[in-house]
Amino acid sequence: MLDIESGELISTSVMSSITIDCTIFGFENGSLEVLLVKHAKGISEGKWGLPGGWIQEVESIDAAAHRLLRELTGLENIYLEQLKAFGEPDRFPLGRVITVGYYALVKREDYSVKAGFTASEAKWFKIAEVPELIYDHTQILEYSIQNLRKRVRQAPIGFNLLPEKFTLLQLMQLYQEILKVEMDKPNFRRKFLRMKLLVDINEKQKDVSHRAAKLYKFDNNTYQKLTEKGFNFEF
Amino acid sequence: MLDIESGELISTSVMSSITIDCTIFGFENGSLEVLLVKHAKGISEGKWGLPGGWIQEVESIDAAAHRLLRELTGLENIYLEQLKAFGEPDRFPLGRVITVGYYALVKREDYSVKAGFTASEAKWFKIAEVPELIYDHTQILEYSIQNLRKRVRQAPIGFNLLPEKFTLLQLMQLYQEILKVEMDKPNFRRKFLRMKLLVDINEKQKDVSHRAAKLYKFDNNTYQKLTEKGFNFEF
DNA sequence: TAAACTTGTAGTCAATTAAACCATAAGATA
DNA sequence: TATCTTATGGTTTAATTGACTACAAGTTTA
């Protein structure tokens, strides 16, 4: 099959006219960031876009998204969820292609850029500094951010952006950054601790130039129990 | 193009390997129902499934879903939202086809079955009485119900299932039916009225064999305002 | 070494909200 | 008229929220 974007021959074992595109979120130094790739060839050469690719004939859409992430980041167990399908007739300039959007949350401590992707370069961008993107990727990114804001208030998915062990302040700053709100430290503590979702691991921060804060882990067990009867995350 | 399901020739102006399927919800006599169609020809003859169809080369996915609804029900302004794309490699027995799931909410008072769809018959089923469905439609329906439960607690979309004018008890029963919970009448009233989303139209029920309840309308204006700063619908 | 500074953690208090009730009103039916 | 059903208005208690104060535990600076 002829790749309508690069003009090269690609495997005939992929579905034509359907792709996936993934917004990969990371959290570093108090800022929410996304991983973008620079397209090396084809009509969009030199422009930045969301990582994406084709779906193979024999793999599910989810599997394709996981494969894409593995190829790009080397990570296996990434938090990944489908957003929706984007399918304006003119979204792709060289033909009718529908794309299935995904968003992923990665722990930056685990992440290392992997070379050899079909894009020449991959780079983290702060949300506010994202450049103009190819096709409808700006729209997909915007939708991803809205979705992240919504989801983070309904389930504790924010943990996927933090290291294994984190402080309550880090957690609060994550929420502040994603939701773009100011919060009160004592109130946040109380509210979050009451949910019983955090395990006190009896460790403290090291090498900080102030009083060291307690470190916590996320307790997935109680989360599962709470989820069943439905609960809320308003701050 | 050969329709892989019916074996008939269909217009070549549709995308191959992508379809849409739509869960249409209705509310009648206190029960949540879905509209299913019986397939008349092809390998799934005689079996029930969600209404679905192909996407034309020049229309957006959303437009295709709206067209499908118009063809099936004759209604133009239906509440419609995309769920997600379903794409297990083996979901469709005769080839690799990805489907984009939608769900719609209709007012039963507006609805009348429209003949001449590619299915021989269309019928409303109570959720608990839905028969075995073709392909992965049971899974799509299940996902739709979960999604409806989630959405109904985040935005007042339930109104789309009720007549223009309704009583507070009808509204409460709708929530009870969708969420499968028992609620307290006085508390529900107070909570809902406080949101200022209902307009008292100074009318009462007629022909009921008990004290007539006030009728209300949904106030879309205040809803738009409230939505901007985000609010919650827990009951 | 002491003071100043930074961040963590505990507690207080008024205002709001939620949940479980009880009570009465407004009809219709027997 | 009595009784039944549903509508609607209150009360009470406990829990939660939001704004704020205070102090603890370290580091850095003077």
Write a short abstract of this structure:
Two copies of one chain form a homodimer. Chain A is an alpha+beta fold and 235 residues long.
Describe the protein's architecture and organization:
The structure is a homodimer of 235-residue chains. The first copy, chain A, has helices spanning 61-73, 137-152, 168-179, 185-194, 220-228, and strands spanning 14-28, 31-39, 48-49, 52-56, 79-86, 98-105, 119-126, 198-204, 214-218. Chain A is α+β, with helices and mostly antiparallel strands. In chain A, 26% of the residues lie in helices and 29% in strands. Chain A is elongated. Chain A contains 5 helices and 9 strands; from the N terminus they run ββββαβββαααββα. In chain A, the strands form 2 sheets. In chain A, strands 1, 2, 3, 4, 5, 6 and 7 form a 7-stranded mixed β-sheet that branches. In chain A, strands 8-9 form a two-stranded antiparallel ribbon. The N and C termini of chain A lie far apart (51 Å). The relative contact order of chain A is 0.15. The A-B interface holds A 15-18, 55, 57-62, 82-85, 87-89, 96, 98, 100, 150, 154, 230, 232, 234 and B 15-18, 55, 57-62, 82-85, 87-89, 96, 98, 100, 150, 153-154, 232, 234.
**Global mean pLDDT of chain A:** 89
Characterize the biggest β-sheet of chain A: 7 strands, mixed
Q: Give unreliable regions of chain A as ranges.
A: none
> Which pair of protein chains has the largest interface, and what are the residue counts?
A-B, 26 and 26 residues
